[in-house]
């Protein structure tokens, strides 16, 4: 399981201590335009992160049905995009940060995307398997915790499932690709743009 700090100082803490300061950001994609609630203490609260945007602009449409996963959902731009593009699928938006989970739930309700399930990482049913995982993973939690997190969730891909991870080159995308391959997950570079890599990972 993902370990969390007890300082409350980071977006990957379970209960961030940063005083609430609500705001809104726009997510504008060729097929989607959403206003999303954000707050301090979550990832990229002032704008949709460039890596997230590149992921959403680059990957193929998610499977039309089944369970899909946004790993590290923040306030929900990835989960809501998946749900919008695959309205018959159930999209699990998971995060260790409970403020993020609450924001995603509110944003999904506001967008009338009623098949988004926003949940803490430890509240996802253990028997669920995912046909797709999209993630801008929390690289800054450090390699041991990152590897533990990815192992936990990538092993829940269905046999025909696929994961897409966006990682900055200078934050270790190439070494992460090698590690994933060494662990038995076939991993290729789906695309590269603005110093970000989109890694495509299939089941081991």
TrEMBL record:
User: SUPFAM superfamilies in the record, alphabetically?
Assistant: S-adenosyl-L-methionine-dependent methyltransferases (SSF53335)
Alphabetized UniProt keyword annotations: Methyltransferase, Transferase
Q: Which residues form the Methyltransferase small domain?
A: 34-176
* Gene Ontology molecular function terms on file: S-adenosylmethionine-dependent methyltransferase activity
State whether keyword rRNA-binding applies.
no
**Pfam families xrefs:** MTS
A GO biological process held by the record = methylation
Gene3D superfamilies, alphabetically? Vaccinia Virus protein VP39
What is this protein identified as? 16S RNA G1207 methylase RsmC
Species per Swiss-Prot/TrEMBL record: Acrocarpospora pleiomorpha
Q: What is the lineage of its organism?
A: Bacteria, Bacillati, Actinomycetota, Actinomycetes, Streptosporangiales
